[in-house]
Design goal:
This protein has 363 residues and is of the alpha/beta class. The chain is 70% helix and 8% strand. It has a 5-stranded mixed β-sheet, sandwiched between helices.
């Protein structure tokens, strides 16, 4: 379910109309907007309320299950206002009484009201943010409000002003570099590279991926997920494996062909990478068990990792140069062992699932 949430941080709605908040439901929000418009037609929160109704109706026409509500803070302290908004959001969520996951679309009239977003996000995921800016008839006023909206919007501000700022820094940075006997072309190259990386970063939308990764890491940390630790350990083991492989290759790189170098690298690194795979999979299995979503077949993962590592170790060992190469008989035995390990683990845990179903399966 989507919840369209109109935010009035300084409680103009309550102070000017006497309406008790939070206000839930389309008819109630429309009545509140009308009463506020009657009490103070110039109040920007009137537009916020009507925008919330408009957004709710638009989503409903798109066959979304949607609700609309208005929440307010208090006039004065930002801390008290944010706390009041958080309490009203809790009241709204409790009143919805839905078994579905609720996600919010927040409607505000400016940056001041948006300071409460972390409080709202701590209670319900936010799918979108809409800032309402009233369009003016006169050209000068229109330009003013457009510039104000651009400068106030974090997304647009970062996209336009950061590259402009870097370009404006080029000339003074070159002058400073020349004053310290540093080649100006070097500074120009560094700034150009920074601007190019930033443009590529914004163009590919990587900021969203990084924000999502940071949010996932934060959730893992606060939820006490074992995978957070095991992933860090696994990353360290992979790095060690890569270094071991690099060291093994560089020891005799001049005497080896590219395929042989690949075999040497894999043979030296595979045990570390296998340890990383087993560590991360065991962490995931542990979290699934703690969440009550455990399945016997999840235990296949570490055994599959071991089976694959045995095969890779044997194949790469067979192509090693000199006396260290694995014999054909040993290669056949290793391949057979890896295959049997994978097949037996699959059969074992399939039988275990049938005879000893986990609690989640039984439910």
């Amino acid at each position: 379910m989507l919840l369209v949430l109109a935010v009035d941080l300084d409680d103009d709605l309550g102070r000017k109309t006497g309406i008790s908040t939070p206000v839930l439901g389309r008819e109630n929000v429309e009545d509140a907007a009308t009463r506020l418009a009657t009490a103070d037609p110039e109040d920007s929160d009137v537009n916020v309320l009507f925008q919330a109704i408009h957004t709710r109706d638009q989503l409903e026409r798109e066959d979304e299950e949607v609700a609309v509500a208005a929440v307010t803070g208090v006039d004065g302290s930002d801390v008290k206002a944010n706390r009041a908004v958080g309490e009203e959001v809790d009241t709204v969520l409790a009143a919805l009484s839905t078994g579905e996951n609720v996600r919010a679309i927040v409607i505000t009239d400016g940056a001041q009201d948006e300071s409460v977003l972390p409080v709202i996000r701590s209670r319900v995921p936010i799918d979108g943010l809409r800032r309402v800016v009233v369009r003016q008839a006169q050209d000068l006023e229109s330009i003013y409000y457009t510039i104000k909206q651009v400068l106030g919007d974090k997304e647009t501000r970062g996209t336009l002003l950061v590259p402009l700022g870097v370009l404006l820094l080029v000339y003074p940075m070159v002058l400073i570099a020349n004053a310290f006997d540093v080649a100006g072309v070097s500074v120009l190259g560094v700034l150009s590279g920074a601007l190019g990386l930033y443009t590529l970063f914004r163009g590919l939308g990587l900021e969203e991926a990084i924000d999502d990764a940071a949010e996932d890491a934060r959730q893992l940390l606060y939820a006490g997920r074992v995978t957070l630790i095991t992933y860090v350990v696994a990353a360290a083991l992979v790095a060690i494996g890569g270094w071991q492989g690099y060291q093994a290759v560089t020891a005799d790189a001049s005497n080896l062909s590219l395929p042989t170098q690949t075999a040497v690298f894999v043979h030296a690194a595979v045990s570390w990478v296998a340890a990383a795979g087993v560590t991360s999979s065991l962490g995931q299995v542990t979290d699934e068990y703690l969440d009550g979503a455990f399945r016997w077949r999840y235990l296949n993962a570490p055994f599959y990792v071991l089976a694959i590592s045995i095969v890779l170790d044997a194949v790469s060992g067979f192509f090693l140069p000199g006396e260290g190469a694995m014999a054909m008989t040993d290669l056949a035995l290793a391949l057979t062992a890896g295959t049997l390990l994978g097949v037996l683990s699959t059969l074992t845990f399939a039988i275990a699932e049938n005879r000893f179903p986990a609690s989640a399966e039984a439910a």
